[in-house]
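May I ask you to comment on the folded chain given beneath this request?
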Amino acid sequence: MKVEMDVYKEIRQRYLSGESERSIARSLGVARQTVKKYCEGAAHPGTRKSYEREPTLITDEVIEIILECFKHDEEEKVRKQTHTSKKIFDRLVDEKDFAGGESTIRKVVRDLRKAQSVPHQSSVPLSYEPGEAVQIDWGEVTLYYNKKKVKLHIFCGRLCYSCDIFVQAFFAANEESFLEAQQRMFTFFGGVTRRAIFDNAKVAVKEGFGIYAKAQDRYLAFSAHCAFDLDFCNPGKGNEKGLVENLVGYARKNFFVPLPSITDIEALNRLLWEKCLRYRENHKIQKREHPVKIMYAQEQTSLNPLPIFHYDTSKTAVIRVDDYSTAFFEKSYYSVPTRYLRKPVTVKGFGNHIEIHFQNHEIASYKRSYKAGETQYKLEHYIDLLERKPRSVFNAKPVKQNVSQELMEWGKRLPGGNREMVKLLRLCIDHGEDRILSIKDSIPSYTVPTVDLIRAHLCPSEKLTVIPMKQDVPVEPVNLVNYDKKYGMVLES
């Protein structure tokens, strides 16, 4: 008998209130068997029991033959030539005089295949020893850099035993950023794991994939220096590094929401470093017996020590300085002091910054540019040349790129013209533009500004002060009466 939901609800409520089954059946006008079936909630009128009937012709011998067909296909490993349900049915009819229908065999074959197969989304629970492995990966985040919405790459690393985390941001996910990020990561963890788990990205893999992957030469050299093995995942198997895959999403939602607004990527990385430390101190992962802090303390003792020699992770090139006193590196130009004109310099490109060296001495450094054709100038590199060629001062690119329009307009008011402007720029280099502009605001508008007047404000004269001296030697008064008598200054009475 089909029972409507309102009747079913009435049966359940009355039974729970203590009314007998006989009374419920009589008052609702339903059979006692129906009340007995539904009163305890052991059945629901919205569900029906599925009808299943085991085919009488499917014997153990038939199932054994089907499984043998599966085994044969697995041994031969010819994907396009395997037993179909139709072929198995034909063999059963020919070899065993099977009298059942083809649809029956199709259902049995389908059920047996499901029983033997493992779902693609299934994962094997893994366990790691302290210091055994770290999982690493790249991700992308959006933020405001110098008031423009841009995308940055974040490098994420996670210790497999303690689940301690490491996150840093880079302008690009290139090889030098990849190596520098791992060097920072091992420094943050205070040691090196015995292996690193990563995918098959070109930044790490030269050719092949998984266990057949061949690492890039520099990554191989870096791993040899730090003494860890490389373990590359199979293609499309993100679950093989699921710990760090989860970290990428965690970092986006917890470290970059709301969208940060930054002007310095290294300041952002210092903030991320602090956030990772707070995570270590305060976080506890579900289904883990201890917090991250305790498990990290256990794991740190099992990490291999950091190598004494600091591996150079930069991309290095020897560049000849051109006639404009700039060095070209990776599609961008960077200025150097004019005294290095036409000399070979060594450019070291790190993930986020550039260092320029001459004979092992650093002569310039910049935030790295990834914009093709961009040139970065520093005013101090050209000030000596401007003092020799002052007529170019208002059109010089190093001046326009580094000096505000406010200072340029003020410089045009100087009575000495271009030469005075060059002197003003020298003061900006020595004291900073903000200091010079603060003096501009303190000079009355009716006063003609001069460089000497600005220097007077920079070095104000000190007021003379009288220092009181304490008399330490007592002086007694002298009687001059006899002296006056001798020279007739005193009249005798």
